[in-house]
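Structure in, sequence out. Go:
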């Protein structure tokens, strides 16, 4: 008798769980068919859901785009990367050594050149300056342009690093932490809501001797549902009210501003020099034609 009693004590909780699971499965099936009553969620909860979804979509879409800042060659056409990298790693230094007469610094074989568009332009221009000759007007202008483009490329890599660490990584962390916590809580609300509605449905069709037990289960399910809704709303408010996205965006813009300002200043310095070389060459060209 004792063993039979022990067996029943073990089986009854399991049977109750199975019964609840079946009831919830039936409830979900009836909901899909439109034949079940569904407990409505608070209007504030539904509004928070919409706002969290909008913030999540923003994060995911921006992450897809800004992921490129972690890769050097995002602005250099793929078909050109190998050929550009094939140029001398420090052709600008080599041309500069030709101009000054100083020896070219030794470069490690592992020191791969950056694959940015600016660095690519720098290497191509420097290669052209070397072949044409820096004593020629075009060669001299190409060398100046190559030097500036290398600096612009370096500045762009600094920008990329700042955007990655101050925007991409924090945005990614937000998606995987506060936003994910809110989504998990929303799933708990859905589970609690289905359980509550399943208990209500069972109570409606209950036999008289089961009414008190099922009424108690409905009350417990209601308490669990309310608690789940409150927790989910708190977590969703944490997403909606967080200052992090705007702070990250401000850092993103600041990194871009610094880069474009640096690039503008660098180009502003070299543009008059190249213009002077061009005008001098054109004057010399016209003079030679007039002779």
């Amino acid at each position: 008798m004792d063993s039979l009693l022990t067996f029943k004590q073990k089986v009854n909780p399991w049977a109750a769980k199975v019964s609840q699971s079946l009831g919830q499965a039936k409830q979900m099936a009836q909901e899909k068919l439109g034949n079940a009553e569904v407990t409505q969620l608070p209007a504030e909860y539904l509004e928070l859901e919409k706002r969290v979804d909008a913030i999540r979509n923003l994060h995911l879409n921006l992450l897809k785009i800004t992921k490129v800042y972690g890769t050097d060659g995002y602005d250099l056409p793929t078909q050109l990367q190998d050929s550009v990298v094939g140029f001398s790693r420090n052709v600008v230094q080599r041309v500069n050594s030709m101009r000054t007469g100083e020896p070219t610094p030794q470069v490690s074989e592992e020191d791969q050149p950056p694959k940015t568009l600016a660095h690519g332009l720098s290497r191509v221009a420097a290669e052209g300056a070397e072949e044409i000759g820096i004593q020629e007007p075009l060669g001299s202008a190409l060398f100046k342009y190559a030097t500036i483009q290398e600096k612009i490329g370096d500045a762009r890599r600094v920008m990329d690093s700042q955007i990655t660490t101050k925007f991409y990584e924090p945005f990614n962390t937000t998606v995987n932490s506060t936003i994910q916590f809110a989504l998990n809580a929303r799933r708990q609300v859905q589970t609690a809501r289905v359980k509550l509605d399943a208990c209500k449905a069972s109570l409606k069709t209950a036999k008289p001797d089961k009414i008190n037990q099922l009424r108690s289960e409905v009350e417990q399910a209601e308490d669990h549902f309310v608690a789940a809704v409150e927790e989910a709303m708190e977590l969703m408010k944490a997403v909606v009210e967080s200052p992090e996205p705007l702070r990250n965006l401000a850092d993103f813009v600041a990194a871009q501003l610094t880069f474009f300002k640096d690039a503008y200043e660098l180009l502003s310095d070299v543009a008059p020099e190249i213009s002077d070389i061009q005008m001098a060459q054109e004057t010399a060209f016209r003079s030679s034609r007039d002779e």
